[in-house]
Specification:
alpha+beta, Phosphatase 2c, domain 1, 2 domains, six-stranded antiparallel sheet, 8 helices, about 40% helix
């Protein structure tokens, strides 16, 4: 079932979760308009029996409830990190109370956006993409064994995606009492597209194909459905049990107040051009006076 993401009277996007080729859907997603901003959460659970689904549901619910309790003047970045840490604590406590759930865990991606900016926080290998005119301008970097190898330039990202060890993640909620949450504050422009998705969604195809699919010119609900159908088709054709797949896709309807920082390359170019302009002006004055 597709759930609309409605914000201030506009439908910015949609969320969908599918069981894929598994016996149980261990993914979970949630959306909530809060005093701190609009919150979108996507989680991918891990653990036998009911563990994975329980962990992901607990994470989504705890993160939303924690953000809801925050006051309007609270710091969004700190609150989002604390909400994810609270979810980690709740999952661990639940596992200790119930032996069947012991050791369960989940990844998490969260997007909290306001008119000022967008905060992106994550743990694990579920991803957040920010696309602009069909181009990737931001993406989270997986907390996984293979992506540590990518970071060290041992293998490429495509080799990491196809690796038999691609499902070995290094960080997740529910594993350790201390969890390191990565968070970014991002500016955005009208029309920028954010995608939050589990590895069952993004990992089915090369990233170029994935970005092309979610950047098509169509309504967002059709884009989400068509991409999910392609992912499921790839899974069925693989002949193996393919993963759950969950994604949220949304387009921003205005520019954020926070603006993009100029990169160092452009700063250098501007400085050089400014120096050349000043030299040109000084030479002109010299020739006029001489």
């Amino acid at each position: 079932m597709i759930i609309p993401i409605d914000y201030k009277g506009d439908t910015l996007g949609f969320v969908e979760s599918r069981i894929g080729g598994r016996k149980e859907n261990q993914d979970s997603a949630g959306i909530k308009d809060t005093a701190l901003g609009y919150l979108v959460v996507v989680c991918d659970g891990m653990g036998g029996m009911r563990g994975g689904s329980t962990a992901s549901q607990l994470a989504v619910r705890t993160i939303i409830e924690t953000i809801e309790l925050a006051g309007e003047q609270s710091n969004p970045s700190s609150c989002l990190v604390n909400a994810i840490k609270n979810a980690n604590k709740v999952i661990i406590e639940k596992g200790l109370q119930n032996p069947e759930l012991h050791g369960m865990g989940t990844t998490v991606t969260a997007l909290l956006f306001t008119e000022f900016s967008a905060f992106i926080a994550y743990v694990g290998d579920s991803r957040v993409y920010q696309l602009r005119e069909g181009k990737k301008i931001f993406r989270t970097f997986d907390h996984s064994l293979v992506f540590e190898m990518v970071k060290k330039k041992v293998i490429s990202e495509e080799q990491a995606r196809l690796s038999s060890q691609s499902n070995v993640i290094l960080k997740a909620l529910g594993i350790d009492n201390k969890v390191d949450v990565e968070i970014f504050e991002r500016p955005y422009l009208k029309g920028d597209r954010f995608i939050l998705c589990t590895d069952g969604f993004w990992g089915a195809m090369p990233e170029e194909d994935f970005i092309r699919s979610v950047s098509e010119r169509d309504s967002l609900d059709n884009i989400l459905v068509k991409t999910a159908n392609v992912v499921e088709g790839i899974g069925r054709n693989s002949g193996s049990e393919y993963d759950n797949l969950t994604a949220a896709i949304l387009d921003m309807n205005n520019n954020s107040i926070l603006k993009e920082k100029m990169n160092k390359g452009w700063k250098v170019i501007i400085v050089i051009l400014s120096i050349l302009l000043i030299i040109g002006i000084l030479l002109s004055i010299f020739y006029i006076c001489s």
